[in-house]
Write a structure and sequence with these properties.
- The protein has 8 helices and 2 strands, in the order αααααββααα.
- By secondary structure, it is mainly alpha-helical.
- Strands 1-2 form a two-stranded antiparallel ribbon.
- Strand 1 and strand 2 form a beta hairpin.
- Helix 3 packs across helix 4.
- The two termini are 29 Å apart.
Length: 178
């Protein structure tokens, strides 16, 4: 266990590297596919997660909001959305006020997929925190959110800060965890 501020900072750095490596290996997605015995469409899950977050924040979900929230270019976001439409997770619906744009809506399949992913992730995190006290869980959650917010503040460009993580109405929305 780290002692002192310098030791704690090194420990955090080491933990962040381990998290990044786990995420780049898609460890949770692979675990989900193994346990459920079915392929996991990570891209469709990312798109429906953005749609839910945008909708909760009062934003109209679009390809643009997918690009902003996933921090990818619009053409990549368009391909992800097209694939999610093709697999039946998402519908493109014309916006009545502007025939040129389309909002995104989850289908029943998309909603069921999102719920399954959220339930699975929650189970993985609960398993990782098994044996923790309620106080430890609450403290970890609070400190992790504080850390991520500060880290985003330091690492994002001004343009990213103005668009990523906020709806058009200026409310903070959560970023997809996949």
């Amino acid at each position: 266990m780290a002692t002192g501020r310098a030791g704690a900072l090194k420990s955090v750095e080491d933990a962040m590297i381990r998290i990044r490596r786990s995420q780049s290996r898609r460890a949770i997605a692979r675990l989900m596919a193994q346990r459920l015995g079915a392929p996991f469409d990570r891209n469709a899950a990312s798109v429906v997660d953005v749609i839910e977050a945008a909708s909760e924040a009062g934003e109209i979900p679009t390809v643009g909001s997918v690009a902003r929230q996933l921090a990818i270019d619009p053409s990549r976001a368009s391909r992800l959305v097209a694939a999610a439409v093709k697999t039946g997770h998402v519908l493109r619906v014309s916006v009545q006020d502007d025939g040129r744009s389309a909002k995104l809506e989850m289908t029943k399949r998309g909603r069921l997929s999102l719920e399954a992913v959220q339930k699975f992730r929650a189970g993985v995190f609960a398993g990782a925190m098994q044996g923790w006290t309620e106080r430890e869980c609450v403290s970890f959650s609070r400190l992790l959110q504080r850390f991520i917010t500060a880290l985003e503040g330091m690492t994002m460009t001004a343009a990213e800060k103005s668009s990523l993580g906020k709806s058009r109405k200026g409310r903070r929305i959560r970023r997809p965890p996949l």
